């Protein structure tokens, strides 16, 4: 029997770089999870993991499985060409927040006070104000392209304010942000790689200029704290290179994936019978709704680790230096962990055990902030947009082709707008 696009019938037909697969990931994940849960991608040193237990084990063993790829791969986030541009025109692209323990914790201890659930809670007023602004601009229209009108501007405005950039800088910062994540798409042309590298370096210099402003005029922003107060391991000030790498990591992580999560969440709320109505009737369910949405449609499909020694996973030998692509989205639909995993269950009790933000000590720095933004946003959406529904004939519900990220292109919705007074 021949496979349909995105729906392979044998492991030999799985192709992670086929746009049809990237639009419909879950049939490939299901097939691999059952027939080859530790699958060597043909012609590569990369092993793809799709079972929750195996992924959890790798994330737990930070002494054996190191962050990042051991070679330039389409999913590693940077090619040799891009790295050369950074090193010759800016600062080396090294995510210090993506480093390995024990160094990792020393950087996380600096950033976490702003982004943990407790630290993020201090930004509730900021987030609520931006949500209200965006919805107020939408309500009377009765229809919206949700990505452009809400899912993009909410996290961008929040992280821009937190970092200490000016709101007027957002259009340029968005260009930098989209260029920064471009390599995660995979299969870039040389021209696209040059563009990603050049824009990335521009972003670095933009950050550096802002750092100088905060040294001269300190405030309560993250950048001001990093340049004026932060100490690595409680001892020395951070170098400019360390600050630049922390800021670009925090800024990108603070807006792109939350945009994807907000869009997927609304898609699931409106496409799953009864969910939107249940949230309207009982807003307390929003918290678990956010977790179940992240489980069902992880904004980050997976990330890469490297085997530091010869080892094995699930009985499969893994040579030293191999890349391990941990497919969080596949683990989130493992029936060994989540019953009826393809079903969106608003009352799923273990939904928070998903891997959308990774797990363990190297989980996503901004997870607390993203959760808070999503909870505030969806609580306000279900309250202020009555009879919310998809706009007839305006959606194809497709995603941007990408090996690593799950981003819907657009989402048109309608609601019952208030009648104007006569």
Averaged pLDDT: 93
CATH superfamily: Cytochrome P450
Helical content band: 40-55%
Q: What is the CA-based Rg, rounded? A: 21 Å
CATH topology-level name: Cytochrome p450
Helices, by number, come to 18
CATH class: Mainly Alpha
- How many angstroms does the end-to-end distance come to? 64 Å
Question: Which strand order does the major sheet show?
Answer: 1-2-10-7-3
SSE string, helices as H and strands as E: HHEEHEHHHHEHHHHHEEHHHHEEEEHHEE
Number of strands: 12
Uncertain segments of ≥5 residues (pLDDT<50)? 72-76
Total number of domains: 1
CATH architectural group: Orthogonal Bundle
Topology of helices and strands:
Elements: H1 19-23, H2 25-35, E1 38-40, E2 46-49, H3 52-60, E3 65-67, H4 80-89, H5 103-115, H6 117-121, H7 124-139, E4 143-145, H8 146-151, H9 153-163, H10 170-181, H11 190-216, H12 222-228, E5 231-232, E6 236-237, H13 240-253, H14 256-271, H15 275-281, H16 286-296, E7 303-307, E8 311-313, E9 316-318, E10 323-326, H17 328-331, H18 367-384, E11 389-390, E12 412-414
Parallel strand pairs: 2-10
Antiparallel strand pairs: 1-2, 3-7, 4-12, 5-6, 7-10, 8-9, 11-12
Helix pairs in contact: 4-11, 7-9, 7-18, 10-11, 11-12, 11-13, 14-16, 14-18, 16-18
Mind explaining what this structure looks like?
This protein has one domain: Cytochrome p450 (Orthogonal Bundle). It has 422 residues and is an alpha+beta fold. Strands 1-2-10-7-3 form a five-stranded mixed beta sheet. Strands 4-12-11 form a three-stranded antiparallel beta sheet. The chain has 18 helices and twelve strands. The N and C termini lie far apart (64 Å). The chain is globular. The protein is 48% helix and 9% strand.
């Amino acid at each position: 029997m021949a496979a349909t696009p995105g729906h392979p019938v044998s492991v030999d037909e799985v192709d992670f770089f086929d746009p049809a697969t990237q639009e419909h990931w879950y049939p490939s994940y299901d097939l691999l999870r059952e027939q080859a849960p530790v699958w060597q991608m043909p012609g590569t040193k990369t092993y793809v993991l799709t079972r929750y237990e195996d992924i959890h084990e790798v994330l737990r063993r930070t002494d054996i499985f190191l962050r990042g790829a051991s070679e330039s791969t389409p999913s590693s986030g940077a090619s040799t060409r891009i790295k050369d541009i950074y090193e010759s025109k800016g600062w080396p692209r090294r995510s210090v927040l993506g480093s390995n323990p024990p160094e990792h914790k020393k950087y996380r201890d600096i950033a976490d006070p702003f982004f943990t659930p407790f630290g993020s809670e201090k930004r509730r007023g900021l987030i609520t104000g931006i949500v209200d602004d965006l919805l107020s601009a939408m309500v009377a229209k009765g229809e919206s392209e949700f990505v452009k009108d809400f899912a993009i501007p909410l996290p961008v405005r929040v992280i821009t304010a937190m970092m200490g950039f000016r709101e007027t800088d957002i259009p340029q910062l968005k260009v930098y942000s989209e260029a920064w994540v471009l390599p995660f798409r995979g299969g870039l042309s040389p021209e696209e790689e040059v563009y990603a590298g050049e824009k990335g370096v521009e972003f670095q210099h933009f950050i550096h200029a802002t750092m100088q402003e905060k040294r001269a005029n300190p405030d309560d922003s993250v950048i001001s704290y990093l340049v004026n107060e932060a100490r690595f391991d409680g001892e020395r000030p951070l170098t400019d290179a360390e600050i630049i790498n922390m800021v670009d990591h925090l800024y990108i992580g603070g807006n792109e994936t939350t945009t994807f999560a907000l869009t997927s969440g609304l898609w699931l709320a409106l496409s799953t019978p009864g969910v939107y109505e249940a949230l309207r009737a009982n807003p307390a369910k929003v918290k678990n709704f956010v977790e179940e949405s992240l489980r069902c449609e992880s904004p980050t499909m997976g990330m890469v680790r490297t085997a530091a020694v010869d080892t094995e996973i699930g009985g499969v030998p893994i040579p030293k230096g191999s890349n391990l692509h941990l497919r969080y989205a596949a683990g989130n639909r493992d029936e060994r962990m989540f019953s009826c995993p393809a079903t969106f269950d608003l009352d799923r009790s273990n939904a928070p055990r998903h891997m959308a933000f990774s797990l363990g000590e190297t989980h996503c720095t901004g997870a607390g902030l993203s959760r808070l933004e999503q909870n505030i946003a969806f609580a306000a959406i279900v309250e202020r947009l009555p009879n919310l529904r998809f706009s007839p004939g305006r959606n194809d519900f497709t995603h941007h082709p990408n090996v690593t990220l799950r981003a819907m292109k657009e989402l048109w919705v309608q609601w019952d707008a208030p009648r104007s007074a006569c």
